[in-house]
Write a structure and sequence with these properties.
about 250 residues, alpha/beta, globular
Length: about 250
């Protein structure tokens, strides 16, 4: 993992008392131009164990504050160690890449992608199983923690993989962190989901755009969502995205 992540912000992140899971911070993220920084938001993690022994093992993993970083590495970057991580098996991570980049990705592109973005789980407690849903308090607490993470990482764009968190925005806690917001703006429906956007700004002239899309798992058309993402996440084409979309050989 050491070759793919940056620990530059870890001291500050560890001081955020409500942050259970350290976010993935790509190794190149701190050096990116200020308008090229993306924070991707997953909704939650759950215990995927199938029997008592495996559930106990997974529980131990989910109690580790490096858990989310491990998930990104073994699913986003599975190809760096297929003997340990196995073959390709994550529709979620591939759809994120495809929806942002607008194309299928080579291993070289995937590596550069995850070295250039941040990834944070909105809900900071793990769920009992895939069918369990976060409750209202967990969503409200999720905004409290996220504002802390935003203040440390200072992304320009925050891409939510799922729209439910938007139902709890703007959080009353927004003023606690000296942010103001335009509020949620709904866009034309894509499939069954209304995408939505918002902007947050603080008194230091920092602002970030929040973009909410369908959860990129089942029934997700990355081609349709790529068009919406491109119109709302205006990455500098001379920055990291142009390098990622260059025609690079497979590793």
């Amino acid at each position: 993992m050491i070759n793919y992540i940056s620990n530059l912000y870890d001291d500050e992140l560890r001081q955020a008392h409500s942050l259970k899971y350290l976010p993935w911070v790509g190794k190149e993220y701190p050096t990116l131009k200020s308008n090229n920084k993306i924070l991707i938001i997953g909704e939650s993690v759950y215990n995927w164990g199938k029997d008592e022994d495996s559930r106990n093992k997974v529980t131990a993993e989910l109690e580790n504050n490096e858990c989310v970083r491990g998930i990104v590495e073994c699913q986003g970057l599975y190809f760096i160690n297929e003997a340990q991580y196995g073959k390709e098996n994550s529709r979620f991570f591939r759809n994120i890449e495809h929806a942002i980049l607008g194309r299928d990705t080579s291993n070289a592109e995937r590596e550069n992608f995850w070295k250039s973005v941040c990834f944070h789980e909105f809900i900071q407690t793990y769920l009992e199983n895939i069918n369990t849903r976060p409750n209202d308090l967990e969503f409200e607490n999720g905004w409290d923690t996220l504002f802390k993470v935003i203040d440390i990482l200072r992304p320009n764009y925050i891409l939510f993989c799922g729209v439910q968190a938007s139902n709890y925005f703007p959080s009353p806690l927004i003023e606690k962190y000296n942010f103001t917001s335009t509020g949620i703006q709904y866009h034309a429906k894509i499939g069954r989901i209304y995408p939505r956007v918002a902007t947050i700004t603080n008194n230091e002239n920092y602002n970030a755009k929040l973009v909410f899309i369908r959860h990129p798992s089942a029934y997700f058309s990355w081609q349709s969502w790529n068009e919406f993402i491109n119109s709302n996440i205006l990455i500098d084409k001379n920055g990291w995205l142009s390098e990622l979309t260059a025609n690079k050989p497979e590793q």
